[in-house]
Amino acid sequence: MSTSATQAHHTGTDRMSDPNWWRQAAVYQIYPRSFYDANGDGLGDIKGVTAKVPYLKELGIDAVWLSPFYPSALADGGYDVDDYRNVDPKLGTLEDFDEMAAALHAAGIKIVVDIVPNHSSDRHEWFKEALASPKGSAARERYIFRDGRGENGELPPSDWDSVFGGPIWDRITEPDGTPGQWYMHIFAKEQPDFNWENPEIREDFLKTLRFWSDRGVDGFRIDVAHGMAKDLSEPLPMKAELEAKAHGTDGFADGSHPFWDRDEVHEVYAEWRKLFNEYNPPRTAVAEAWVHETRRARYASPEGLGQAFNFDLLQSDFDAASFKKIITDNLVAAKESGASSTWVFSNHDVVRHATRYGLPKGGSVAQGTNAAQDVTGGTKGQDGKGWLLAGAPAEELDVELGLRRARAATLLLLALPGSAYLYQGEELGLREVSEIPDAERQDPSFFRNPGVEIGRDGCRVPLPWTAEGSSFGFGAGGAHLPQPEWFQDYAVAKQEGVEGSTLELYRQALRLRSDLQTDEELEWVETGNQDVLHFSRPGGWHTVTNFGSDPVELPEGEVVVSSGPLESGKLPADTTAWIVRNS
Ligand code: GLC
Questions:
Q1: How many domains does the chain have?
Q2: What pTM does this model have?
Q3: Same domain flag for 401 and 325
Q4: How far is 288 from 475, CA to CA, in rounded Å?
């Protein structure tokens, strides 16, 4: 793409109308229930986001992505949606949403919202109607109902597991009180899967996308984008059959899994793309698709959603060779698909990177959800490694090392061409909260796998805004998940204006990033040291990261920011520096 197109991205109002604003945007993920609580009921809310627009502006991000804020019983942190075109009354009203959107836009910040199309909640009016209607009715056709196996239908239609553990099928009681059909839910039992072969479902989501686009939403994050399309022709294969097949064919990289990553899902996205392009600038979308790397480009295609997350860096150890390979491969893949690349270390589903990098290498990042969504559709990680990092013994965690590496990794990420996705709290250097008592946990993966999975609550604890006061300034009341004492040291108020704090590092880097950003090109510079990565971007912007243990010489130029102090002009272990050269 041309330099002028990317540079339009930096200049105030131009950026707001630039159709390419997303290509190299820094997008900050807000988990609304844990961001800021404006009304003091213990739950973050929409007015809380509005109140913190000055903070977001000062941080220097280009867009916010809001995790679901729709009416929900919170069986899965809001990813169980009761009504797609409304705001959860616990979080506010549509008017509050409009006010927030106006405030963000006035600050030059775009808005991305989460769309959850694979499943609704079991409190959605359509699911209630399906339960109250007879077998074979149009209301049942909106979801996936099947008769059970066995003499009296007492066995589930297949033996598949759900992502959160336990069977994928649940049996209902028919309106007449007799044991009845089974419905499918890839996730929790409170999240029944929609039947995407039903045109009514397709129409309704178009209506939802239009509803939010008309309200000024600039883009969408598509939850479980590799779900939705299903081939459930009978007889359904059993788990063992599926697993055997997966191993024989490099996972399910051929679209033949009955419910993950099927080719038909792209027909849906082609329709959505037409709708997105009716807007000016066109609405954007990014796919959450945990698919085989060879299949990602389809989601990112300009005829489809336009961009797809790659979770490769997020799943990697802090290691020079892996980082280099991942970056190289993803830049090639993004170019081929016409998208820009995405980069992410932390989100609401995984152990925060400040913890991951402080634990012994070789662990896995997920806590019971997304690694479980591997291509086999089974409930265990692809590599058989444990993923209980949040529950790892505290003595194995090196807090200081984890944060130092997290800062170095983030500074590297922010220099890469493409979009940077940041998760609330990482700008404070927060690590995973591992000390949540069982009785206060909320995540379904914890409850469905007692004693096995710890769940994702540890990265969803309400943010500390102040070092003192109720819930560390999160709100006038308590916090819906308990905050540990050590949060006080990480509070926004403790870091603001403090040189070298993680918050100031993010602010400085984000400011510089928008000044330095150029074409989506990256060139590796040979360092002669396998533990040191050095790349440059057009315009003389160089980034060097030392993954090794000894300080190294820096290349010539002005060091404009570094993730930690230099040592006698050298770049110490686990540190990144940006250097600008005027040639
Ligand atoms: C996605 C979300 C996760 C949620 C799941 C089911 O993976 O990121 O939080 O539990 O979908 O909607």
A1: 3
A2: 0.94
A3: yes
A4: 31
In ligand 1, the atom with minimum distance to the C-alpha of 116 is 12
Q: Over the stretch 293-339, which tens digit does the pLDDT of each residue have?
A: 889 999 999 999 999 999 999 989 999 999 999 999 999 999 988 99
Position 383 scores a pLDDT of 31
| Interaxial angle between packed helices 502-516 and 399-413, expressed in degrees from 0 to 180 and rounded to the nearest 10 | 10
User: Are both 243 and 358 inside the same structural domain?
Assistant: yes
Find out whether the beta carbon of 337 lies less than 6 Å from any atom of ligand 1: no
Domain with residue 137: its CATH number is: 3.90.400.10
Residue 545 lies in domain:
521-580
Q: Is residue 58 part of a domain?
A: yes
Domain assignment present for 194: no
CATH number of the domain where residue 542 is located? 2.60.40.1180
Contact 76 CB / ligand 1 (< 6 Å):
yes
Residues whose CB falls within 8 Å of the CB of residue 94, separated by 6 or more in sequence, listed in order: 86, 87, 215
Residue 333, SS3?
Answer: helix
Q: Are residues 212 and 90 in the same domain?
A: yes
pLDDT at 389 over 60: no
| Percent of the chain at pLDDT exceeding 90 | 81
Which two tokens mark 106?
A: 């006035």
What span, in angstroms and rounded, lies between the C-alpha atoms of 221 and 235? 34
417 HSE (CA, 13 A, CB side) = 27
**Element at 322 (helix H, strand E):** helix 320-337
Which residue do the tokens 């995973």 mark? Answer: 432
Q: Is the CB of 574 under 6 A from ligand 1?
A: no
Q: How far is the CA of 142 from the centre of ligand 1 (A)?
A: 21
Active site residue 176: no
Nearest to 362 by CA among 343, 377, 346, 383: 383
User: What is the whole-number distance in angstroms between the Cα of residue 369 and the centre of ligand 1?
Assistant: 7
pLDDT tens digits for 265-293? 999 999 999 999 999 999 999 999 988 88
Name the active-site residue from 278, 396, 515, 523. 278
Does residue 474 form part of some domain? yes
Residues 68 and 37 in one domain: yes
Which residue from 66, 70, 187 has its CB within 8 A of the most atoms of ligand 1, so it is best to mutate?
Answer: 187
Q: Are 396 and 259 members of one domain?
A: yes
Same domain, 460 and 434: yes
Which atom of ligand 1 is the closest one to the Cα of 188? 6
Distance CA 333, CA 341 (A): 8
What is the distance between the alpha carbons of residues 286 and 304, in angstroms, rounded to a whole number?
10
| Nearest residue by C-alpha to atom 4 in ligand 1 | 79
Question: How far is it, in rounded angstroms, from Cα 413 to Cα 421?
Answer: 9
Residues 113 and 133 in one domain: no
